[in-house]
Amino acid sequence: MAAQEPSPPSSMESNKPGFPKKILGNKLEDKHLCNCCHNILRRPFQAQCGHRFCSYCFNRTVSNGPQKCSACIKEDIFEDPTSILKQGCAFPDNAVRRELRTCQLFVSMKVALGKAALKSTS
């Protein structure tokens, strides 16, 4: 049986990390990637420090209490208390969610147009 393709980025499932990068190909910017799993954001959240995480990844990161943002540390921009990740200090990033939906829609349209072109040449 063929492997099932992952859901598109508009999926509302929050119990999984990000989507594989291959879904959107080269249409990705860093802001579309989770700073934890490094995949395409699923239900994107933005922390106070500005870094983005999948809802699942953020909740998993802070499940044992406040944590230092590893992306802030890596970029050498750690600032206390802004770079401390904790429950209630991140918000859904609806702008990036809409951008990802637009990217997915564009890819879906290209695939559909490609299939239609193949059928018309057969």
Automatic annotation (TrEMBL):
Pfam family, one: TRAF3_RING
GO MF entry, a single one: tumor necrosis factor receptor binding
Protein name: RING-type domain-containing protein
Region (Disordered): 1-23
One Gene Ontology term from the biological process aspect of the record: positive regulation of canonical NF-kappaB signal transduction
Organism of derivation: Pleuronectes platessa
This protein's UniProt keywords: Metal-binding, Zinc, Zinc-finger
PANTHER family xref list: TNF RECEPTOR ASSOCIATED FACTOR (PTHR10131), TNF RECEPTOR-ASSOCIATED FACTOR 2 (PTHR10131:SF21)
